[in-house]
């Protein structure tokens, strides 16, 4: 079962310098999970053309979907469009449909600074949706989203269903066993169930359990088989609960 | 003025799948800022040896300091140590001092699973501090921190002062001008003050201002010169306040 993969590229000095706390990657983490897409990478980089170009080139080649956040306004620190164009060796062209919409929206205020918002990497696709005043912009497998969280959310929500695939299944087992004592058995079960991602998370503050084991897969049968095998090797007296 | 740079590498399927919300990168963002270190990259990657190796190799070469978070426990999904060893073509060796401490702490419970916690990339450095029961581990310029937030925080706080350099200076200007109308003047001021990082952040929800302009530099005089030049080109009637 091939699972589509995704990466999030957050572009913004304001995140790295702590002026603004990221909300957009956080939203996409939960959204992509719910859509059945495997998020494999989050990168936060500065407002720098070469950094954007290098990151987009790398992520676009390695993952099915790339979502960028930020850097799409009209000022000197907005370098996402030019960075994406450079990543794909595309020139930047004024998109006639976007230009028309800007003129219709701004009327006689549609000066060069505003019209420049119609400049996109050559070959970009506009994705329209009834919920959006402005269309989403995509270049190859890169979806270009704004940094302002309300706008980011509205745009992503308008296009989210195009990414939906089969869901993930998940189980969790809580135990009072120590991770050191679990490690060997856990490795054996993990090795014999490559389709199931098994995670082990110790808690040093919970009084209820010492380790939370998580099992995830797109294959519900595979997950149940792994749970069964795991339950057989866990210490029954230290078992807390499963969910 | 050369500013030391840093990267944060968060290693953990649990972050990418949304089971756990990152707190460690968030802590380091504010800490590094306060210490005068320029954070240039955050990457979140899965529990995968090759991914860790590739990321560590890249980040370690490009930035002065690299901080890893997570993947240092005893279970199969803890691959940070082996990934870092692979990044630097080092073998993994049992560190005699760590081994001695594990034996002293666990007594006769110090089995192979626990002793394995003394296995580190060859040439790693232990950093001791009175506040720490276990020393910090560093390999070249890579500081290896645990994923559990309480432990991450305690370890980083114990070693933070070794990274302190001259502070950043920052100013902010709030205006009711539109970003489209500001863009050209802003670019001119930014171009003539390369030592000052100027950011422009629109707000669509604030009633007080439309754009927040930020100026940051290690050079207090450079920042004041840029503020002065900026104030001269801003529309006085739309100026809100500065801080």
Question: In words, what does this structure look like?
Answer:
- The structure is a homodimer of 243-residue chains.
- The first copy, chain A, is α/β, with parallel strands linked by helices.
- The first copy, chain A, folds into two domains: 5-163, 3-Layer(aba) Sandwich (Molybdenum Cofactor Biosythetic Enzyme, Chain A), CATH 3.40.980; 169-242, 2-Layer Sandwich (Alpha-Beta Plaits), CATH 3.30.70.
- Helices cover 38% and strands 25% of the residues of chain A.
- In chain A, the strands form three sheets. Chain A has a six-stranded mixed β-sheet, with helices on both faces. In chain A, strands 10-11-9-12 form a four-stranded antiparallel β-sheet, covered by helices on one side. In chain A, strands 4-5 form a two-stranded antiparallel sheet.
- Chain A is elongated and about 75 Å long.
- In chain A, 43% of the residues are buried.
- Chains A and B meet through helix 1, helix 2, strand 2, helix 8 and strand 10 of A and helix 1, helix 2, strand 2, helix 8 and strand 10 of B.
- Strand 2 (38-45) of chain A pairs antiparallel with strand 2 of chain B, so a sheet runs across the interface.
């Amino acid at each position: 079962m091939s699972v589509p993969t995704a990466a999030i590229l957050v572009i913004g000095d304001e995140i790295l310098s702590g002026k603004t706390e990221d909300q957009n990657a956080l939203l996409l983490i939960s959204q992509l999970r719910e859509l059945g897409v495997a998020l494999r990478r989050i990168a936060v980089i500065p407002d720098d053309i070469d950094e954007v170009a290098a990151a987009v080139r790398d992520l676009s080649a390695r993952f099915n979907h790339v979502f960028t956040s930020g850097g799409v306004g009209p000022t000197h620190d907005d370098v996402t469009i030019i960075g994406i164009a450079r990543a794909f060796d595309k020139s930047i062209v004024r998109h006639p449909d976007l230009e028309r919409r800007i003129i219709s929206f701004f009327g006689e205020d549609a000066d060069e600074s505003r019209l420049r918002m119609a400049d996109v990497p050559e070959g970009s696709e506009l994705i329209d949706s009834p919920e959006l005043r402005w269309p989403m912009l995509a270049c190859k497998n890169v979806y270009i989203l704004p940094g302002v969280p309300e706008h980011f959310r509205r745009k992503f929500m308008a296009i989210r269903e195009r990414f939906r695939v089969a869901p993930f299944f998940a189980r969790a087992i809580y135990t009072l066993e120590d991770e050191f004592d679990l490690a060997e058995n856990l490795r054996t079960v993990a090795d014999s169930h490559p389709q199931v991602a098994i995670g082990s998370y110790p808690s040093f503050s919970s009084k209820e359990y010492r380790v939370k084991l998580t099992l995830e897969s797109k294959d519900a049968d595979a997950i149940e088989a792994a749970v069964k095998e795991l339950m057989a090797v866990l210490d029954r007296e230290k078992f807390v609960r499963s969910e």
